[in-house]
Structures are given as C-alpha cells and as structure tokens.
Amino acid sequence: MVTTAASGLQQLQDRVLKAGLCSYCGACSGLCPYLVPLQGRMATPDACNVTASTRCINFCPRTGLDMDEASQAALGVAYSGKPIGDYQQIFIARSNDPKVLKRAQYGGAVSVLTGLALRLGVINKAVLTRTVNGVPRGVVASSWEEVLECGSSNYLVSPTVAAFNRIPASNGAADARIGVVGTPCQIQALSKMRASPLAGRSNAPRLALTIGLFCTWALGHSFRTMLAKVAPPEQVKRTDVPPPPARIFVVQTDQGKVELPLDEVRQHIPLACQLCADMTAELADISVGAAEGIEGWNTLVVRTKRGAELVQAAFDQGLLKRGELPNESLEHLKGASLGKRRRAVTNIAAKSGSQDNLLYLRLRPELTRRWQGS
Amino acid sequence: MQPSKTFADPFNMVVAGIGGQGNVLAARLLGMTLTHLGYHVSMGETYGASQRGGAVMSHVRASKAHLHGPLIPEGRAHVVVSLEPMETVRVLRQYGNPEVVCIVNDRPVRPTGLAGIGYPELSSLHDAIDALSRRAWYVNATDMAIKLGTQLVSNVIICGALVGTRTVPITEKDFEDTLQREMGGRRRLEVNLKAFRDGIAAVQEAAVR
Amino acid sequence: MSGIASYPAGSTQLLLGNQAIARGALEAGVQVASSYPGTPSTEIIETLAEVAKERNLYVEWSTNEMVAIEVATAASFAGLRAINPLKHEGMNVAMDFLAHLNLTGVKGGLVVVVCDDPQPWSSTSENDSRLIAKWLHVPLLEPATGQEALEMTKYAFELSEKIGNFVMLRSCTRISHGTSNVVVGELPTTQRTAKFEGTDAPHGRHAVILSMEPKIQAMLEETPFNQYQGPEHPELLIVASGTGRPYSVEAVEMLGLKDSVGILHLGTTWPMPKKVIEKHLPRTNRVLVVEEVDPYIESNLRDIATDIGWLAGERAVLGKRSGHLESVGELTPDRVIGALVSILDLEYQSTDKEYRQQAQAYAQKLVSDRNTVWCAGCPHRGSLWAVKQALKLDGRDGFATGDIGCYAMDRRSGYGSAKTGSVMGAGIGHASGFGRLGQFGFKQPVIALSGDSTFFHAVVPGLINAKHNKANITLLVMDNDATAMTGDQPHPGVSHDAMEQEAYPVSIEGICKGIGVPVQVFDPFDLDKTVPALLESVQTEGQEGPRVIIMKRPCVLLPDQRNKEHDYKVWIDQSQCLGESCGCGQYCVRVFKCPGLMWDRAAGKAKIDDASCYGCGLCAQICPVSAIKKEPIHAAV
Q1: How far is C573 from chain A (nearest CA, A)?
Q2: How many domains are there within chain C?
C-alpha cells in the first residue's frame, strides 16, 4: 500500500508556518535537520518524508492546544480559565543580592529561583534565553554564573524550547532534571509535549521545573533593524517598557538611554503573538513578571506544589524578600490578562472567519463563550 | 584451444557498466585483440557521464568483410559483457535477443538517492537475465579484484570470463598477447594476467558445477 | 616515440576518431594547436599535446575558445599550419572572431574542427554547426569514418592554403568518440619557420569570398570524398553524410536492399558538390537524405534539385522535413532502418515481439535511472550543500544562477539551488542582471556559480560588470585545480600547461581583489564556516556590489587525489542511526546523497559503501544524531 499522506513537516508548514500561526517557541525544532530556527522564523532547508509519529506536529502548540489536556499534564487539574489561571499564592518579591538586582530585568526573582533550583538539585540543567549580538536563543545553564548571563530580555521572540529539545537523550541524560524558564507560548509547548503520546521521545519526562514569564507581546526579528539604527546590538545593555501612560520603549546602551515610540515598536509584534491568550504563563509551576508600579520588584504566581517548595526554600535561605501584592495591583493584573484573552479570541475569530473556529485553541465551550462575551 | 565454431559477421558485443568501472578500457582491449586478429573493428562509446555514476555502454563490432558503423542495431547483440547486474537488463532491453549470451559481474552498484533504496533483489535480476539470454555466466569480479589488491582489474577479470566461455572469436593467447603489448610495467602486467586467468577459471568452475 | 607519433606509415591502428583527426593533422605538418576543453572534441588536443615535445609542436589549452582560435590564427598568419578543435558550443564562443576571419583569410593552413554533440550526450544544447560554414562561405568537410577523418583533415590543410581561408571539418560524437581501424600515413620530416607579413583588412572583402565560392565548389567536386555505391537505377537513392553513411550501408544490407537502394555519400557539404548531385539524382525518382541533426543537406539538395529541374511531379526528397527521420536526437542504424521500412513499405522486427515485450517488462520492473552524480569525495558536494543551506535558511526564495561544469549537476541530481544554466559565463551575467532588479521589487538573494576554469573562460567580464554596476550578489567560485568535467585539463590557474610544462598560475583571488571585490576563501568541507559565510553574504543589504567566496579543494579524479590514501575511516553506528523515523527520514541517503552512502534494507539503517566511499568525512558533519563516525587514518601517534 502506498501512503500518500503529507509529511509531518509539510503539514506543519501548511497548518502553522505558512498560516502565520508560528510563535517561534522552538518546540518543533532541535529534533531533526528539517526545522531550523533563524532570525525569527522557522527555516526549512529540506523536505522531510516522515509521515508517521512526527514530533514536530505533535509538539507544536499551534497545531492544536487542548487547554484541559495541557493543564492536566502541567498542573494536574483541568483548565479553570480563571483570570490569571490557577494558583496557590501570589505576592511580590525581590532578590536580596545587589549583584543580581543590577543585572536582572526587575526584582531578579527568576535568576534567584533558577540558581537555587540548580544548587538544591531540583534540576541539574536550566534552559534559559540568552541574547548575543541582539539575537536571543535558548541556552542550557548548569551554574549560577551561567544563569546570571541570561538575566535580561530584549523582547524578541526566541526559539528557547529548541535548546530543551537538543539536550541529548543519551549520555546519562536519563537522570537529567531539566528546568525551563520561558514565555507563555513556550510553557504551553512544554505542557503539550508532556501530554503528547510521543512524550517518551522527548525530554518532557525529564522536565522538573517550569518558570513562566509574563508576556503581553513579543517582537519579531524585523525589530532588530529598527533597534540597530539606535545602537549596535553589542552596545544594548537592556530594554524595557515602562508602564502606561508612558508610550515609550527604553533602550539602555553604553552611551546612555534612548527612547523609541512604543507605537512604532509595536508594529513589529508578529501576528502569532496577537493570537495568544495567555499573559501570565498559566501552565507554569511559578509565573513571574514585573510588579507594575513597584519598581525593582517581581510579581510571583505560585501554581504547583514544587513551585511552592522552591519559593519557600528561597525565603528560608534569605535569598528573596517577600512583599504583599496590593489588591489594586492584582485586579489590574487580572484585567490585563483578561484583556489579552479577549483580544486573542477576537483576532483568532477574525483570522478564521468564524466565532466557532478558534484555530489552534481548544477550550471548553463555556470558556469560549465567556471569553468572547467578556 | 582454438575456438572451433564460426561466429556471426559482424560480431556484436556490448560492454556495459557504470562510469568509472573500466568498461571502456575492457572494450578497447577486446577491440585491440580483434584488430590484431585481422578483423575490421569499430566501437561506439557513450561516455559523457563516464566518471560520474551514469550508465556507460561500449559497442564492439568485428567483421571480416568490412568496417561497420559504431552502433549495433537494436536486438543484434551476440554477447553482453556487463560489469553490473542491473546494467545487463538495461542493455538486454535494447540489444538483447533469444540467442544472446551474457557474462555478468555479479556485484551491484546502487544508483544514489532515492532510487538506491529500490535496488532489486539480485535473484530477480538473475531471473531476468536468464530468461532473456541463451546462457548467462555470473562472476563476482569486484570481490575477486579486491582479493588481487585492486578493484581496477575487475574489468580484465570479466574479459577473462568472456574468453573462458568461448563465446567470442578470441583465444586465451590472443588476449594475453594484447595484455603483453598494452600493459606497461611488470607489476601491472602481472596483476592483469593474473586477473585474466582468474576470470577464465571462474567461468570454467561455474560450468563444471 | 610515443602515442600517435609512434605508428609506422601504412600500419593499421585502432584509433578514436579524435585521434585519427590528430594523426591527420600531424601528417599534414600541423605546428600549432589550441582549444578549450569540450566534449566530444577534447582528445584532439590531448593527443597532440602528448607528442608535442617530440614533434616540436605548440599545443595550448587556451582561456576560452575565442582566444584559442585567435592563437591558432596567429600561427596561420605567420605561415604555419594550425588546428583549432571545438565542440559546437565552443564554436559559438569563437564565432565573433570567425565571422571576421573568413573575410581576412589565412596564410598557413587553418582547420577548425567542430564536434557536434547530437542527443546531446555531454552538452546543454543540440546544434548543427554546418549552417555556420554556409553562412561564412567557407568549405565544410564531413568524415564518415575514422579513416576518412584522418584523410579529410590532411586534405583540409591543403585546401585551406589553396583558397587562403580556413576550412571547417564537422565531426560528431559518434565519429569523435567512435573507435575504428585506421591505416596511417607518413609523417613530415620538416617544419616551417614562422614569419608574419601582414593580413588583409576584413572590410570590403565580402565580394571576394563570394567570388571564391564557385572555385571552391569545383575543387570539392573533384575530391574522392563524394562517392556513389549501388545499382545503376535504384528504386531509392540515399544521400548520406557522416555517420549516416555506415548506418545506411548496414540498414541496406540488413534489409536485403542492395539491388534496389543506392547510397551517395557526400563528404564535402559546403559549397554543395552540385555536379556530383546533378550526376546521380537522375538515377531515381526518390531520395532519402540521412544526416545528423538538422535537414541541412536535405534543404540544400532541394535547392539544387529544383534549380536543375529534377524536383517535379512524382519526384521527392525525403528525410527530416518529410518526417521519415527526426531532427531531435542522434542518428542511429535503427532510425535509418525505420525510414527505409516506412518509405519502401517493408516488414522488419529488431527481435521477436514476445522477447521484446518480456525484456521491456523486466526492465520496467528492475532497471532504475542512474543520475549522474558528483563523485564520492567531490568538493562540489560540500560547496553546493552550503549554497542550498544558506539560501533555504535565508528563506526568501533565493537561488543560484548556474554555469557549465560538474557543479551544473546541482540542478538535476544535486540540491536544486541552481535554477539557470546554459553557457559558460551566463551565471554571473544573469546574477549581475538580477542584482539590479531591486527597484522593481526583486528581493530574492542570488548566488552565481562558477568553476575555476569557467572563471577564467567567461566569468571575469560578468564580475567586472556586476562590480561596476553595484549588483548586490554573491559569486561562488569552486576552485578544484582543473577543468574537471572534461577530464581534468589544466587552466590558467594551475602551474602546468597542456604539454605538462611549467606555466604561470594566475590567481583567481588576485583577479577579484584587482576588480575591488571582497573575497573570502574556504575549504568547501568546512560547513561550519561556509554556511554562515554564505548566509551572511546573501543577506548583505544595499547596493555595494558583489562579494566573492572561493571554495578551494582539488577534484578527486586528479591523479594525485585518486591515488592518495583516504583522509578518514568512515562508518555508521547503526545503533544510533534513526533511519526512516522522525528526526532523520533517511537524511544522508535521501537528501545529502553521496554515492559512498547506501541503504541497508535489512537493518532499515544507512551504511557506508566501502567500494565507493572516498573517506572525505563530509557526511559525518550532516548526520543529525552523529551516527556517522569518522576517524583520521593518519591519526597522530
């Protein structure tokens, strides 16, 4: 019998890459020579001929993301659809180490927690995002020094999950305990990978910790050209988006501070990001973001037992200082999260041409209605 | 041992193989021998792609009457000498007939790329060659040549096999004389003479079995 | 004495057509030979180069065909006999000069041998060069056998000196690459001294050469090269040239038509031997013209037949124009048999029908195409792999403009980056043009491909054009130390010449730098460096002109490369090989495609074919799970 089914790669190209759904999370990549993340898009140098059990389409969150299955795999419960997802605790925190604070984007909590997880042996490899010459990519860190190298963001989409995939399954990786720090789309990808029937042919069984990063949007690599006009990539120390009403994008360079108009910067947000309904990385063990209006602090959302244990250890060892999240800030966070969901389902429906067709996003009907109605 | 039978005139041989296997040289040695025996010899070679894995075919034609053109008309080969099994079938499709005899190097050379995966079973090739010829002899000349220390002489082994079958108007001595004349260097001559004799022995053993 | 110079006069030799031509030239006292390699003409120069020293010849592989004919002409201007063999495509390169040389005229005998390649076996085009002789008003000879190739070459030199113009000898693949018995003649014992005394200016000479044509025609009519054999009044007269003659003789014999079909062999086909035709046409009412490629004789014969009033009523000239033979593809005995069977309404089976059907059925099931491919160890595999990777990673539909050389195989059996490929130098010319289409919305990156010999032949002017006009492109020069496709002849970049004497190696890098083009040089097997370098080059924005990347590694067929020990022991750890499953999909045998790699069907894994592997280790770099292992054979002890 002749199988005429398209290869997995061909299906991924048709359903995701050419359809403009790819968020460049990297989940399909690092597994084969056929998908190479480059400059903000997945390059496909050759045609693949594998049609059966192909990991790319099975791991990509944009070929279909059943939120209940993903939540079950990541958090052990069906997806609740609460405004910022399920969580056990929420508070603000910051590092006690001035060295960390100097390098970190906000309160340094992510660096501290990752470093501690490595030191405690909760994990022995941490997949992080590091920006070199203006290009972010996934790296594997196993020491505190390496973690510190990855302390800030330039808002560009990054194929970080590819680095997770590339950790060799052989050579003693059976005892690997991998932690991943990623954006919501990357955490969604890892959750789908955990739920997949092909999970055994991935590093998902060795995933021991996920730290999600709040994300309202990210920028495509066309932004690099805009940024390069302001400063050469190697001179950019850090970028930041101050809270409204400031409508600016701040670039810190060796020479000082440059401000770019936020509206122009936002032109570089990929379509795929506009279809994302998750702002707070709802499927991570711990989600971390800026504590809006409280400079130098992070908001921490602790969602799982292992997340809670790690955070507790950080407090016990005096690595993090804890503060209360003002109720007003919590309400604001929820509002922002709901706003992203609402925009996402509107954008998806506009793209699919139907209120009932949410493309990749599979929600229980009552959630769909609630998100569309809210 | 003079071949006693009479041979067709013109006598048509196809020497087939893959670029780089040395079939052009084999054809040339056979042509030289026939020239020396007083035949009018003409040969046609297709070798634009000879060194790059393509199918290569030489036509060797000998006549006592007059010089013929460089190409054998379709269906008119008397002997097919092939350095590769699949190539034998390719040649038989165009030049074969029920009376043709084949001397085949039994070592496959797979086409590269996807086609390489689909190389047929050797036994199916044997079935085809046997069905399409009056008689076929199979010799693993490549392995025999490697035993002699150089793959390069597989073509001369096949020439030995051909002469050993007594299906050509060439005796052992005729061909050995050609080797004596053409193979410069004592070592080169020796290995080629050995290859030639091994080829003869290989078909004679096969015939006994 | 060696090679063709060693044959005693009167002896019978088994010679390649091209060797027969070379021997003919030698017997005619040729002193200078120049050409650019091109199948099927190459062996003429190679054969002469082999005896250059002992015969005191000057034999040259020139930079390109136009330079070659100009070099040969200089010898002729100085009173020497010279030969200039070309393939049909090379003839086109030489045309600019030849279309003036016919007016200038020559002094020493000058013979231009053009080897057409019907089918084509080793060319990108299938041309009939005979029309050039008619256009330029120069004599044209067409040998039918090796013997005739020798005789006609000798005669061509004499004729050339008699008429003071060059003579064209038209061969084709089956003549040049056919081998047959040839009786050789005497070699001269003296040589001429070179002295130049000026030439006629070409302008205003058109009338002169036209007035020569009837005189040339009369001379050719007297030659022994046009002969009739057959009955006094045949039912059908075959007019045949070149390979058409032996094929016709055989077809007539096979079909038992000796008493009813006559054959007029034409060996001199421009100017057409009118008197010969006038003499033989009246024998019959029907003529079949058998010739390679175009209906050239057929059309000219119709003109003559009409002029003399023969072609009227029932009488007919048959051939390609009548559909009995084809203009496409080479002539074969079977095509001639087919034409005779159809014209004379005969029955013919090449072999019995049942056998044929059975053979077709077996072949269909068992025989697959063999694409020509780069040899195992070929540097082009690394170069073109990097080109493919860079263009695909870039992802803007970039492409390569191809050129002529082994790398042209990229288009059909390589990685498919090359989307054009016609004549030497066209790659850079196209690229230069594409590189200026930005103002019309053109965004695709372009890499022009070139070999080393090709670079000297025709790429330099295109590169200068691209630089001057600031075309945003990349030129990839694959320098493998040889004109590889035609059999590793030397070119201006190597340190020996056609006669194996020391020559000055002209630097490709130096030329590029002189033009002001940035140059990088890499080993094509260093994919870690070449892919990023090519990617960076194709992503260069702006209109600052071309970048050149040179890939340097010798052709594996060069004698010292062929005989050297392998660099690596290469093997596959099948326990790691992913085979057909996700993560690989037979990447090495299906995508990378080296003849050294094969598929182990029983194991469902890849395997090294030890009989083919060259031990270059390139494949070890592309295996996604590093299952292809390599170990240096000369490991540090």
Answers
A1: 14
A2: 4
